[in-house]
Design goal:
The protein is an alpha/beta fold and 387 residues long. The chain is built from 15 helices and 10 strands. The longest helix is centred in the middle third of the chain and has 19 residues.
């Protein structure tokens, strides 16, 4: 059952109802939304969030980067184009802008101006950053402008972190940036259920043994643990071949972490969702907008790259060729927002659809690689679910 327009706020999952002494884990403000808010936004035709690429330029060349960014990348979108996108999305009920860069957004020449613009419209700026540029002044600036921040922490082992980022000495610089964010106040939220600091870590065979240590590191510091599974797209297809983890490994670490959360922090959550301890329902309420203006449901769902989605060789769902409102109401994105009604395999009719639609990006990437058409790939069974 979907909560719909009148769903109760912070409705507990079925497992939480069965074990009522547990709490729902916190979210990262502007990045994740409670399921009832996600479905309500969908049903009210509100674009709750956009994920906005600002520049492909980057100070790292991470081996798992979906955008294949690097210091050699040159693409930077203009401030004027970015603010126009935000203005248009604001008219559709925008609540947050996830400034995801594509590369490292803090090195965009007008990054500070963009954050001021977003914040001035009572929209939450949510910044993805590798934190190696995160000075004390920048951390304070972001805190004062109501931002949330997602840093990077793939490993607590310097050698592993440096390898995954493809650069020596990165581990120390990441830690320094995180320290500056915590010192600015990001790890002291007013509401413990609504965090302002997170770290993203991509689980693969190299860091599998230390996932619990990373989890404790986050929980002890009021940091949102954004654990993702290595996706076979972008640079990872070649540079991390063989580093993907199996369904059994996913099941094992999720159940171990669930026990950690229950026993140590009193949290309970559905273990089948793609983001550990947090469902990913962005298909229902969000757009991902690339540096070139192409609109996707999420980063790995590269509809703009698939020849079947183009008309006369051009992908039509582009914010520089059509308005965001036109794209939002297009039949393709109506299908995307209602993907819960079309899911196949064990995802179809799942009793947990009110809080999980599986990892659509992972399902799309794998199935397109195997030759399925985009619509079939979008609705395919989630390959990370061990239910």
């Amino acid at each position: 059952m979907n909560p719909g327009k009148n769903g109760p706020k912070s409705q507990p999952s079925k497992e939480q109802n069965a074990q009522g002494s547990f709490k729902q884990p916190p979210i990262l403000v502007g990045y994740t939304y409670f399921p009832e808010d996600a479905y309500k936004a969908r049903d009210e035709n509100r674009l709750l969030a956009i994920r906005l690429e600002t520049n492909i330029t980057c100070n790292l060349r991470c081996r798992y980067c979906y955008a294949e960014s690097s210091p050699d990348s040159k693409s930077v979108q203009s401030y004027e184009a970015l603010t126009d996108v935000v203005r248009q999305a604001h008219d559709l009920g925008l609540h947050s802008v996830v400034v995801i860069g594509g590369g490292e957004p803090t090195i965009h020449p007008r990054f500070g101006d963009l954050i001021r613009f977003i914040s001035s419209r009572d929209i939450i700026p949510m910044i993805f950053t590798n934190t190696i540029t995160m000075t004390k002044d920048l951390a304070s600036f972001l805190y004062d402008h109501n931002a949330s921040v997602m840093g990077k922490l793939d490993s607590l082992n310097p050698e592993v972190q440096d390898f995954l980022c493809n650069k020596k000495g990165v581990f120390k610089r990441i830690q320094n940036g995180l320290d500056n964010l915590m010192e600015a106040g990001f790890s002291n939220p007013e509401d413990p259920r609504m965090l302002r600091l997170g770290v993203s870590f991509v689980s693969c065979k190299m860091n599998l043994a230390e996932i619990e240590k990373i989890w404790y590191f986050c929980r002890q510091r009021n940091i949102f643990p954004n654990m993702e599974v290595l996706t076979p797209t972008g640079r990872a297809r070649n540079e991390l071949s063989g580093q993907g983890i199996t369904l059994e490994e996913i099941k094992d670490y999720k159940l171990r972490i669930l026990e950690v959360d229950k026993k140590t922090y009193g949290y309970n959550w559905l273990p089948y969702t793609p983001l550990t301890a947090s469902g990913c329902l962005q298909y229902l309420y969000s757009f991902y907008i690339t540096i070139d203006g192409d609109v996707r449901p999420c980063a790995p769902t590269k509809l703009d790259k698939h020849p079947a989605m183009k008309k006369n060789g051009i992908y039509p769902h582009n914010v520089f060729r059509r308005s965001i409102s036109e794209i939002y109401h297009d039949s393709l994105f109506k299908y995307v927002r209602n993907i819960d009604k079309y899911l196949e395999g064990k995802c179809g009719g799942c009793e947990y659809l009110d809080e999980c639609i599986g990892c659509r990006g992972y399902a799309y990437s794998v199935n397109v690689n195997e030759g399925k058409d985009p619509y079939a790939a979008l609705r395919s069974e989630c390959l990370q679910c061990f239910r």
